[in-house]
Amino acid sequence: MLAMALRLGNAGKFSVVGEEGKKNYQLLFEHFAKMIEKDETAFFIDEKRKPEVIQSVKRTVDYYNTQNPKDLQNIIENLETDQPTSFMIIPSYVNLTMCDHMYGLILYKKDSNYIVTMIDKLGSGIGDSFCKGAFSTIPQERVEVLSEFFFISNLTITTRVTAIFLHSFEN
């Protein structure tokens, strides 16, 4: 990431889908967990919360290792309720006509529901508007469907499909 930020590396060669994308994201999140772990000044995360945040970052790595939707469902169901340090990050990808684009989904548990928050610093077109962030509430009894969706999609869904899918839980 540093090489890409300093334009020392070719960001176009950083695969985000398929087996190569899986390896890249596992490596990225493993390094992110190590970075937090080695932070001795609490620059990134408060010292008391480090173990929980590291565990949450590792859930993202585990997401790529799931062999079936039930494995992913177990990971999701083990999120702690109303704990800001208990989450999953699901990188998502959209192939736009002008360029490819990444955005993030943050999954956490609040009350008896799961919340999926979309974060997109550039804003992705959904219909005629551009959205930098949105969220959907998924009832706990629909966690199996949510798990199947994230397992099957595994970085290949578009913003429009994500928005339509997540909105369907609210009807």
What can you tell me about this protein's structure?
42% of the residues lie in helices and 26% in strands. The chain has a four-stranded antiparallel sheet with strand order 1-2-3-4. α2 packs antiparallel against α3 (50-65) and α4 (69-77) packs across α5. β3 (113-126) and β4 form a beta hairpin. The N and C termini lie far apart (40 Å). The mean pLDDT is 79. The protein is globular. The chain is an alpha+beta fold and 171 residues long. The chain has helices spanning 2-5, 18-38, 50-65, 69-77, 143-153, 159-168, and strands at residues 87-95, 100-110, 113-126, 129-139. The chain has one domain (1-168).
What's a quick, concise take on this entry?
The chain has 171 residues and is of the alpha+beta class. The chain has 6 helices and 4 strands; from the N terminus they run ααααββββαα.
